[in-house]
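User: I'm preparing a small set of examples for a lab meeting where we compare how different chains pack in three dimensions. I only have the primary sequence for this one, and I'd like the structure in token form so I can line it up with the others. Please keep the answer compact; I'll paste it straight into my notes.
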Amino acid sequence: MTTVNAYHAYAIANLRPPARLDDEVFTYMERIQATLDPFGGRFLVHGAPRREVREGEWPAALVLIGFPSMDAARGWYDSQAYQELIPLRTRHIAGDAMLIEGVPPGYDAADTAAVLRAAQSDRL
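Assistant: Understood. Below is the structure token output for the 124-residue chain.
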């Protein structure tokens, strides 16, 4: 069964929360969905309390939010509503965040490998 992914861009955060969360963090969590809704954003992973680390270490909390496009992801992050919320989290939780575009429908890693292989052999 093949499904079409409605999300083509993502906000990814690697957060390192303290053992005890400040009340501002709870306020941030309570209010964030309202900032996502106008941009079609949806939590896909939030904290990942149940996870299996198969390689390396992953001591942080993962947050993954899907968006219909990179423009929607940028619009959300840059929106006044979200910009007002950010300090409620960043004052209390260290972390890294980025917006990233997903691969297009029909993407095949073998095609990318072929392009990279050819580019690498051209440099030899």
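A couple of notes for your slides: The two ends are 43 Å apart (CA to CA). The beta strands are 9-16, 42-47, 61-67, 94-101.

User: Perfect, thanks.
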